[in-house]
């Protein structure tokens, strides 16, 4: 009980840092973060608030807008809004990690904060949705399908990118089943199909721009493909190294599992590996590339599977790669290589300018 309270107090401290940040910390903080607060203060009803927000900001889902409106009306504070959003980002991850990572739980949260806290100061809507998609996957793994549906609906009503959770569900029900003993096993030929699917994904990536141009004019769904007609950002070498560490680490962990956990390990490793094709979409549009974050976050239940038993050498290799990758992302990608302006109190604390 004392440890539980300590963890929640630690989360509140982290959220307070996010709430007290300057509006220049995180592009979206001074964008829709500030706009939602100002408009919430000016609006007399949620209907008028949401109509203005929808007309001004692209893809503000109704639940996120309602959450922001309620917080602003209750507390009349920019700090309270940013604090509450950060709490909504971290709390679902905390619950998912506590469910599957009873051992070394504090270390798991530390790795999460190293790798995902700073991006969450900018991509606030997606970061909230990511936590609920994580809960969605964990609920699927536990066989709690009603709860899983609720979590996915909440995620979709927070940010449209949470539709990636539907892909995670397709993988779950297409490649795996439970046998008579209730143990998760591979479906027939599913392992071969999982490998072949990466070749299909590669082909789609090569032809993605042509496909996007073809579908961008289709009524209803056309605007979703407009992103594919953009010219995105060059690939980040350091970002690629971080992803490589997590994917290779996940593979080391998965191959070490016994038959009892092999299917679960393969499922989570497959989803983590999907971060690679999404990351490669950076050259088309960074918005699509950001969906790789949903995949990478699934290292949390994977580590939970490892720590539920005594890890062997392969598991330790995987854990070291994942832990080193998270530390690399924070200290090199965020603090040292040009991202220190996103969170200046951290870079000042570390003595790096």
Summarize the structure.
The protein has 19 helices and two strands. It is mainly α and 353 residues long.
Describe the protein in words.
The chain is mainly α and 353 residues long. Helices cover 72% and strands 2% of the residues. The protein has 19 helices and two strands. It has helices spanning 2-19, 29-42, 46-56, 62-75, 78-100, 105-120, 124-142, 145-156, 164-175, 190-206, 208-215, 237-256, 259-273, 275-280, 286-289, 292-296, 299-307, 313-336, 344-349, and strands at residues 176-178, 184-186. A two-stranded antiparallel ribbon has the order 1-2. Strand 1 (176-178) and strand 2 form a beta hairpin. Helix 5 packs parallel to helix 7. The chain is globular.
Strand order of the largest sheet: 1-2
Q: What is the makeup of the main sheet?
A: 2 strands, antiparallel
Class based on secondary structure composition and strand pairing: mainly alpha
Beta fraction: under 5%
Spell out the helices and strands N to C: HHHHHHHHHEEHHHHHHHHHH
Number of strands: 2
What share of the residues lie within helices?
over 70%
Rg for CA atoms? 20 Å
The average pLDDT is 84
Using the alpha-carbon principal axes, give the shape. Answer: globular
């Amino acid at each position: 009980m004392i440890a539980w309270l300590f963890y929640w107090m630690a989360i509140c401290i982290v959220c307070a840092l996010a709430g007290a940040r300057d509006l220049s910390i995180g592009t979206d903080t001074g964008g829709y973060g500030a706009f939602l607060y100002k408009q919430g203060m000016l609006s007399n009803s949620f209907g008028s608030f949401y109509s203005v927000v929808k007309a001004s900001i692209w893809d503000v889902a109704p639940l996120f807008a309602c959450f922001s409106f309620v917080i602003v009306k209750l507390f009349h504070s920019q700090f309270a809004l940013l604090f509450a959003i950060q709490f909504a980002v971290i709390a679902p991850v905390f619950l998912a990690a506590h469910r599957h990572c009873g051992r070394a739980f504090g270390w798991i949260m530390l790795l999460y904060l190293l790798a995902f806290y700073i991006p969450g100061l900018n991509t606030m809507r997606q970061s909230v949705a990511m936590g609920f998609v994580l809960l969605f996957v964990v609920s699927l793994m536990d066989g709690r399908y009603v709860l899983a549906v609720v979590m996915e609906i909440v995620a979709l009503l927070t940010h449209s990118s949470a539709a990636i959770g539907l892909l995670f569900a397709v993988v779950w029900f297409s490649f795996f089943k439970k046998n008579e003993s209730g143990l998760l096993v591979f479906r027939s030929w599913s392992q071969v199909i999982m490998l072949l699917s990466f070749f299909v994904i590669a082909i789609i990536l090569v032809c993605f721009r042509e496909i996007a141009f073809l579908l961008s004019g289709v009524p209803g769904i056309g605007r979703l493909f407009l992103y594919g007609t953009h010219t995105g950002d060059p690939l980040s070498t350091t970002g690629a190294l971080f992803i490589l560490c997590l994917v290779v680490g996940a593979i080391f962990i998965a191959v070490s599992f016994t038959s009892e956990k092999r299917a679960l390990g393969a499922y989570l490793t497959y989803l983590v590996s999907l971060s690679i094709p999404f990351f490669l979409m950076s050259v088309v549009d960074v918005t699509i590339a950001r969906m790789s974050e949903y995949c990478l976050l699934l290292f949390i239940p994977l580590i939970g599977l490892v720590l539920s038993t005594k890890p062997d050498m392969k598991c330790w290799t995987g854990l070291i790669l994942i832990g080193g990758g998270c530390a690399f992302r924070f200290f090199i990608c965020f603090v040292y290589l040009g991202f220190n302006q996103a969170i200046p109190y951290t870079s000042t604390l570390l003595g790096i300018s």
